[in-house]
Amino acid sequence: MGTGTIAGNLHFTEPNPNIPSLLDGTIEVVDYNKPLTGSMVGIDSSGFGGANVHTILQAHSGPQVKNLPRLKPELPRLVLVAGRSADTLAASISFALHDLTTYLHLTTQYVNIFFCFSGDLIMHSLYTQYMNNFVLKQR
């Protein structure tokens, strides 16, 4: 919602003929990047294992905080990254370093994404890693 674009579905080819609302245009599968109009979106996820969720999100109408001020900005920022294997950990680090070199900064929101996704994994991980140290140490 922060970019104003609805990301297109990568794997959609044609609507299911057994779903009339897809055929008559009542609902649509976004198969290309589309401008987001309005401030609310519905997100639906249906899983084969029975995990079915539907939620409605509304964009925050207040100012967006790009970065919170830091008392000592010259100090390195610690980014927690966790993985269940050395390969998944290395992939997460590669992803973060790609974004860091592409955008040349870590925003508070970006770091929070890593904290949210890594937090649950840390308790179940064999490997942990600091951002600029590539030695994988098994715990």
TrEMBL record:
Origin, by domain of life?
Eukaryota
Q: Which UniProt keywords apply?
A: Fatty acid biosynthesis, Fatty acid metabolism, Lipid biosynthesis, Lipid metabolism, Multifunctional enzyme, NADP, Oxidoreductase, Phosphopantetheine
Which is an annotated GO molecular function term of this record? Answer: fatty acid synthase activity
Q: Does the record's keyword annotation contain Lipid biosynthesis?
A: yes
Q: For this entry, list what GO says about its biological process.
A: fatty acid biosynthetic process
Query: Record's Pfam families?
Result: KAsynt_C_assoc
**Does the keyword Transport belong to this entry?**
no
Q: Where is the Polyketide synthase C-terminal extension domain?
A: 15-96
What is this protein's name?
Polyketide synthase C-terminal extension domain-containing protein
User: Which organism was this protein described from?
Assistant: Haemaphysalis longicornis (Bush tick)
